[in-house]
Amino acid sequence: MLTAFNTKLAVVIFIFILPRILFAQFIRFFDDTYLDAVYSSAAAGSGARAFGMGGAFIAVANDGTASSWNPAGIAQLKKAQLAAVYLINNFDLDFPGNRHSSSQTFDPKVIVTSADGPRRYSSSGNNLDFLSLAYPFSIGNYRLAFQFSYQRIITRSMHTQFRNVPYFYAAVTDYSQIRNQPAPDRFDFVEYIQYKSTGGYDAVSASTSIGLFSVFYFGIAFNHWFGTPQRTDVTNQTYVYTRYKDDDGDGIFFEQDILEYSVISKVDSRFRVSGQNLSLGVLIKPYPRISLGGVYKTQFTLGYERVENSIGESTLYNPPRTDISMRTESASIIYPFSTGLGIAYRPNNRLTLSSDYTFTKWSRAKYTNIRIVDEFGIDEREEGPFIRPDNNYDNKDAKQIRVGLEYVFGSDNWILPVRLGFFKNAQYLADSNGNSIAYLGYTLGTGLGISNHFYVDFAYISQNGKSSFGSNPYPSNAKRKFSSNHMYLTTRYSF
Questions:
Q1: Quick check: 403 and 420 in contact, CB under 8 A?
Q2: 107 pLDDT exceeds 60?
Q3: pTM of the full structure
């Protein structure tokens, strides 16, 4: 037989904890969506020189990272070039406290008011981001080039920490059977999660480019996507239920019937993705100091698989109970096309000004051939929308505007470039009001070139933004804050 104490505890768990568990059974594909959103434009490439200029590189694309931005630019190279890019990432996502209430419970005696404490999601990591070999040559008035490259499209080499501190208060409306005087009971919930993941979603590319009379350049790249990242999640949840009671009716309440228990779980996941698409590029120089560029990356189907093994232990039971489960997911992801346009102007041999606009049709993204197998059974669906789990709005098309400059100091034997950039990144994620989440960022870069053979480049990128959150149609007025910092280091060798 349930006591009043246990009944109220069940009410709170039903309202706040059970929906978390049930919802997690369905939305599981891209767990790190906020991190993936940094790379939401598939038109983005790699390299410290390009990102030092704000990523405005479509109409420039004249170094060893050209194939990742605009394959038409490979033929601009004068010499064969080896290029390697290393990336260091840091992300922070902060949720402020939020207060809301609800009277919809299965116990008519209970009105529940909840107050969520602040939460922070922090992630950091580093990885090899790009590696390539480009070889240009001439035949008469034609300039030809081939390039073979590897690129980390979305990194999973991250260590992530997430701390969630919401407080829930339950106020009982009918006290005749439960207590003498009204006072809210308190239910505290603290969650601490650590992710440790390796690998990522990668692509190897074979590219070729042809240039005509140093005016028209055309290029194409075949991209094979693959990846087998792994991830371990360790979650520590602590629940404290405190009942307050006024025993002598003097209006002073004391803590009574305190119940504390914890849930510790560990989840090991293995992923696998594969797919192919094309990148088409064009670059035109109508005047010697002006370049116009365009790139189009085709839509394709990305195969996705995930195998998950989990073990959890709860001290709510005596003796503590251990649960072991296994879950498999498979689906086809319709990955959208992206396109970009760029312009570059060189008023003299030392200064380059550039600007890009990129667009990715994320509103077309969706899951097909979905199959989920777990302890609840088999769930099969023909297709599902590519949406965020915290609202009911469809994906937005990602749009980015980038501007940058490069000024080169030096002589024939050495160069010292200085680079600046700015960008606005409108994500495919929608906030609780249905608006696209947009971030602003700036970039700084420099480098050193020696004897026209060896180059080292460095870039720092800072990105920040705010967005409302909550569930449609009940958005919150509070704003979550996102910030990320990236550092690129590139080495290039021409021969």
A1: no
A2: no
A3: 0.82
